[in-house]
Each structure stands twice: as structure tokens, then as C-alpha cells.
Specification:
The complex is a heterodimer. Chain A is built from 4 helices and no strands. Chain A is mostly helical. Helices cover about 75% and strands about 0% of the residues of chain A. By secondary structure, chain B is mainly β. Chain B folds into 2 domains: about 30 residues; about 130 residues, Immunoglobulin-like, CATH 2.60.40. The radius of gyration of chain B is 23 Å and the shape is elongated. Chain B starts with a helix and ends in a 6-residue tail after the last strand. Classes of the chains: A mainly alpha, B mainly beta. Chain A: Belongs to the SPCS1 family.
Chain lengths: ~100, ~170
């Protein structure tokens, strides 16, 4: 899952569970059956698990864009990289022509 | 990064927490409930009255117990524990209470009681104070909930008296 997907999964979980609990409570209260409340809620929990736990494709729609390695390195240490690059270039010159 | 185990754990923990809150609310709805029980007990006959081998007074009664406790049941009631207690005063004790009959009612349909029975438990005194004694028969019921606190109610019936002499 990507970041937006994780947020979506967590929000879905919270709203679904609270919503199912309210529905179950009202169903049980007006039908004077505690067992009905438990059954409706259990069904709601299972449905919530099925929707929020597995890594469904719709949780991956805003996938992360990783940077190229060169661009990443440059953005972290611009000076050092340039110096290293020029030192490497100079070293190469020296080393390749022993006199 | 998230894993499905982490999400699974979060869902189940939150589900149980929400369920606990729902159960608290359910037990609170009991405070809104009003019950109208009807109770009547008659002593049909005194079958035996004398001293038992332990030296204490003992009485055997045949009772007619009729009670309608259907209105006591709520959606949050698991069962009622009903018992009939004989209550009287003696020189030794300010209050004597003896449970002489009980029953467990597990559903609303069974809550209409019509019993003609001898006392289930011995009606025995501490000593010999029962001759000519005035006593109350009190029907108590404990309301055992599915979730939450247990409450107790009772109905007191007065005006019963035991014979003046042993039989």
C-alpha cells in the first residue's frame, strides 16, 4: 500500500466499525435481541476485515515516485559530489599514465 | 511500511474496543426500563410443624406461588434468579430470612410462574420461636444482565401466621 492508501484503509476501518456498531446496536435494541446485535456486528467486523486488511489495488493508486540515484545523490550533497567527481577525474588522469 | 498483519491487528483491536463501548451503552439502556411485576403467594396448607432432630422448629408448607415477571426482562437480560424468603423477627435475631424456594428463569416466555409446591428448602428456625409467629413471604429476583451490573428487586407479602401449636 502507498501512503494515501494506508490513510484510506485506516479511515475506512474506523468509519465502518463505528457505523456497523451503531447499526447493530439499533437493530438489537428495537428487536429486543442482544444476540441480533452481536450477529450484525460480527458480520460488520468480517466485512471490514475483508475490505481494509488485504492489499487491494485501489489502495495503490497513488504510488510513490522514487528518485533516480544520480538526482538523489545530487540533491543530498551537491558540493561533495562535485569535488569527488573532479578528484576522481584527476586521479584517473594521473593513474593512467605512469611515467 | 504497513503490513497486512499490522492492519489486521488494528482492525480487531478497534473492533473489540467499539464492542466494549456498545456493551456499556446497552447496559445503560436498562436504566430506562420500567417493570410491572405481579406477585402473589398463598399458603395452601401447613403439612408439618414441630421440632426437628436438631432441636429447632421446622415447618413444611404447601405453597401456591404465582408471579408474572415478564415485564422485568429487557434485551440485556440473561436470566432471573427468583427466590422466596420467609422473614420474621425472633427474640434472638432482629431479622431472620430463610430462602424456602427458588427458580432460574432463562427466557421471557418462562417468566410467568404458577407453582403449587412444597417448600424446596427447609424452613427451620434457630431455636423454637415459630409457634404463632407472624411472618412475611418476600419474593426476590436478581436480574442477571448479558453485560453490566446485576440488580435485585423484591415484592413483600405480609400477613402470614404459623399455627399456635405443634402439629
Amino acid at each position: 500500500m502507498d501512503w494515501k492508501g494506508q490513510k484510506l484503509a485506516e479511515e475506512l476501518m474506523q468509519y465502518m466499525l463505528v457505523g456497523w456498531a451503531i447499526a447493530a446496536f439499533l437493530a438489537g435494541y428495537f428487536r429486543t435481541s442482544f444476540q441480533l446485535m452481536m450477529l450484525v456486528y460480527a458480520g460488520g467486523v468480517i466485512l471490514t476485515v475483508l475490505i481494509t486488511v488485504p492489499n487491494w489495488p485501489f489502495f495503490n493508486r497513488h504510488s510513490l515516485k522514487w528518485l533516480d540515484p544520480d538526482v538523489a545523490a545530487a540533491s543530498i550533497n551537491p558540493v561533495k559530489t562535485k569535488a569527488a567527481a573532479s578528484a576522481a577525474a584527476a586521479g584517473k588522469k594521473k593513474g593512467s599514465r605512469p611515467k | 511500511m504497513h503490513s497486512f498483519l499490522l492492519r489486521g491487528n488494528a482492525v480487531l483491536t478497534f473492533a473489540l474496543t467499539v464492542l466494549a463501548v456498545a456493551c456499556v451503552l446497552a447496559s445503560l439502556t436498562d436504566t430506562l426500563h420500567s417493570s410491572k411485576p405481579e406477585v402473589n403467594v398463598e399458603i395452601l396448607s401447613v403439612d408439618a410443624f414441630g421440632r426437628n432432630p436438631g432441636g429447632n422448629d421446622e415447618v413444611v408448607l404447601t405453597l401456591h406461588i404465582s408471579a408474572d415477571l415478564q415485564s422485568v426482562f429487557t434485551w440485556n437480560t440473561k436470566q432471573l434468579f427468583v427466590f422466596l424468603a420467609a422473614e420474621y423477627e425472633s427474640s434472638k435475631n432482629v431479622l431472620n430470612q430463610i430462602s424456602i424456594w427458588d427458580s432460574i428463569i432463562q427466557s421471557k416466555e418462562d417468566a410467568k410462574i404458577q407453582r403449587r409446591t412444597r417448600n424446596k428448602y427447609s424452613f427451620v428456625d434457630q431455636g423454637s420461636n415459630l409457634r404463632g409467629k407472624d411472618f412475611n413471604l418476600t419474593l426476590h429476583w436478581n436480574i442477571m444482565p448479558v453485560t453490566g451490573a446485576m440488580f435485585s428487586e423484591k415484592r413483600v407479602l405480609t400477613g402470614f401466621r404459623l399455627p399456635k401449636n405443634y402439629m
